Amino acid sequence: MTDDQQSEADSMRVLGHSAREHWRVNADWVDVTRPQAPIRVAALEALPQNLRLDLNQTALVIVDMQNDFCSPGGWLDHIGVDFAPARGPIEPLNRLLPQLRREQVPIIWVNWGNRPDFLNISPGLFHVYDPDGASVGLGQRVPASGSRVLEKGQWGAAIVDELDVDQNDIRVDKYRMSGFWDTPLNSILTQLGTRTLLFAGVNADQCVLHTLADANFLGYDCVLLSDCSATSSPAFCWDATIFNVRTIFGFTADSSDFSTALQAT
Q: N- or C-end of the chain: fewer Cβ atoms within 10 A?
């Protein structure tokens, strides 16, 4: 590099928040080339086939690990559903999350967090949570907690206290079973340069699966971390979810196998 080229390079400033997705500019030039980080391969035991993935293009999406679904006094508890299975992902996630952060893999928490005025919620969505019009549904207060169901800023929409959440993790509010509808999730992943998504959370057969399916339709590689996912639905719903992920939408893997892959990277 000549002295003039070095001077020009030194004068350029970064536009953009992502380490990979940014421009460099000065008064005379705009450099739209993107830096290409060396591939960091993690070889992962998975089903129906094993995987090699690039950690530089991977993110973890954790769906709905929030009080209304996973805690005593939450909405599921109020309507008499056994929420204990929804707490199953807490321990394996807490083992995995520090490892992912050390490898600089983005962690994205996608939770129901509805607007207080519910102006983007259709009658059909209200019906899911209040089928007879006389029950405690979206925006109604759960007696045990006083929290309004799945409303942004309320206790029920908050991530459960037992989970290891870092201030640098990314949070996205969602308003449908899928985390991609009417949210910035896809835009965020694009700016991060993400191609492969790991999925975790609850309910596996509902919001996790619908978010994963939409990710597949958008062209992402999809891996369901089976021990970091759970459902309060009947067992056949879990079986169908695993079958559909492996057959149609992507792959399943265990977090311990992913930990092994990280250690070998």
A: N
Q: SS3 letters for 228-260?
A: EECCCCCHHHHHHHHHHHHHHHCEEECHHHHHH
Tell the residue number behind the tokens 């149609």, with chain if given: 248
Q: For residue 85, is the peptide bond before it cis, meaning its omega torsion is within 30 degrees of 0?
A: no
Task: Report the alpha-carbon distance of residue 18 to residue 155 in Å, rounded.
Answer: 31
Q: Could you give the angle at the alpha carbon of 84 between the alpha carbons of 81 and 86, nearest 5°?
A: 90
Per the listing, tokens 């206290």 go with 161
pLDDT digits (tens, 9 = 90+) for 234-261: 999 999 999 999 999 999 999 999 999 9
34 φ, ψ to 5°? -105, 140
User: Could you count the other beta carbons within 10 Å of the beta carbon of residue 11?
Assistant: 13
Q: Is the pTM of this model over 0.90?
A: yes
- Domain extents for the chain? 1-36, 37-264
Q: Which residue has the tokens 């991609």?
A: 180
Contact, 56 vs 146, CB < 8 A? no
Tokens read off for 225: 């971390």
Q: Which long-range contacts (CB under 8 A, 24 or more apart) does 6-11 make?
A: none
Q: Kindly report, residue by residue over 192-234, the tens digit of the pLDDT.
A: 999 999 999 999 999 999 999 999 999 999 999 999 999 999 9
Dihedral sign (CA 57, 250, 190, 122): negative
Q: How many residues are there in the chain?
A: 265
Q: Give the chain's end-to-end CA distance (angstroms, integer).
A: 34
pLDDT of residue 35: 80
Active-site residues: which are they? 64, 174, 207
Query: What single DSSP character describes residue 48?
Result: S
C-beta atoms surrounding 108 within 10 Å: 21
